[in-house]
Amino acid sequence: MGRKKGLPEFEETAPDGFDPENPYKDPVAMVEMREHIVREKWIHIEKAKILREKVKWCYRVEGVNHYQKCRHLVQQYLDATRGVGWGKDHRPISLHGPKPEAVEAE
After folding, report:
1. pLDDT of 20-34, one tens digit each?
2. Domain membership flag for residue 35
3. Residue 78 is assigned to a structural domain of this protein
4. pLDDT class for 89, splitting at 50, 70, 90?
5. Of 1, 2, 53, 64, which one has the greatest count of Cβ atoms within 10 A?
6. What topology does it adopt in the membrane (predicted)?
7. Looking only at Cα atoms, what is the longest distance across the chain?
């Protein structure tokens, strides 16, 4: 017994035949689109989990200096968790989307 030679190949793009105006027109494309959305959500969730583990590690290693040393990781984690999760698709983007960048006054 050994490892399998190849891993299954997944398309990283949305299905071609999916029509958002009439999703039930092509049931196969609808299911493929749903699987695509779920796969993309899981990818974002797992990226956030990895960043959370990095933040935990940084807090433990840096000790009292974690405010300065881990700030960039915390910012990455907060950006990664905005809008990630289940049930946030139909909410306004202002409630769960990324924070708008502050424009500096000249």
Report:
1. 888 888 888 888 888
2. yes
3. yes
4. low
5. 53
6. Peripheral membrane protein
7. 66
Domain count along the chain: 1
pTM above 0.70, yes or no: no
Q: Is the pLDDT of residue 106 over 50?
A: no
What is the DSSP annotation of the chain?
A: ----S-PPP---S--TT--TTSTTSSHHHHHHHHHHHHHHHHHHHHHHHHHHHHHHHHHHHHGGGHHHHSHHHHHHHHHHHTT-STT-TTS-HHHHSPPPPPPPP-
Within-domain flag for 67: yes
Cβ–Cβ < 8 Å for 85, 67: no
**Gap between the Cα atoms of 62 and 6, Å rounded:** 41
CA atoms within 13 A on the CB side of 21: 0
